[in-house]
Design goal:
The mean pLDDT is 93. The chain has nine helices and no strands. Helix 8 packs antiparallel against helix 9. It is elongated and about 70 Å long.
Length: 159
């Protein structure tokens, strides 16, 4: 637990630094300010300051989040959408963020991840291997039609 900040100036410096070293959504910043024992009026005024000073931009956050989670963690669109909804990002911003991922890049990532994971499953029972593969890819947030089409293709190539 953080110690309460002594002044609004100190809180402003801390929260500006918090927002400057990594993109943040409004919800994360509001939670951080509450842990700093700020009262609701101070939180509102700091949020307005952060937005007007461009420390806080929800669209920039959503786009950066979508790109990063796809390129680094290899998440699919469903998982990215769910995580952004959890962070209270609006649907219109989620749609805009998902446009940051080109269809070619998305499919390249999907196929590379699918083939790598298929090869890594040591299961000898074909049905169990297919189930493990599907569970993994669906957990990653890829669309079920893509996953099921890919598992059919990989199962045929194994025979």
């Amino acid at each position: 637990m953080m110690k309460p900040v002594s002044s609004l100036k100190e809180a402003t410096q801390k929260i500006e630094y918090f927002c400057s070293y990594q993109e943040r959504c409004h919800e994360e910043v509001a939670v951080k300010l509450r842990t700093m024992k700020m009262d609701p009026e101070e939180i509102d005024s700091l949020m307005v300051h952060l937005i007007s000073s461009n420390f806080l931009n929800e669209e920039r956050f959503a786009c950066s989040f979508a790109r990063g989670k796809h390129r680094i963690k290899h998440w699919g669109k469903i998982r990215i959408t769910n995580e952004l909804k959890f962070k209270k990002i609006t649907q219109s911003l989620i749609n805009k963020a998902l446009q940051e991922i080109t269809p070619e890049e998305y499919l390249d990532t999907f196929h590379a991840l699918a083939e790598r994971h298929w090869a890594s499953i040591g299961e000898t029972n074909a049905l169990k291997k297919q189930k493990k593969f599907c569970d993994y890819m669906l957990r990653r947030g890829f669309e079920s039609n893509l996953v099921y089409d890919k598992v059919k293709a990989l199962a045929i190539s194994d025979q």
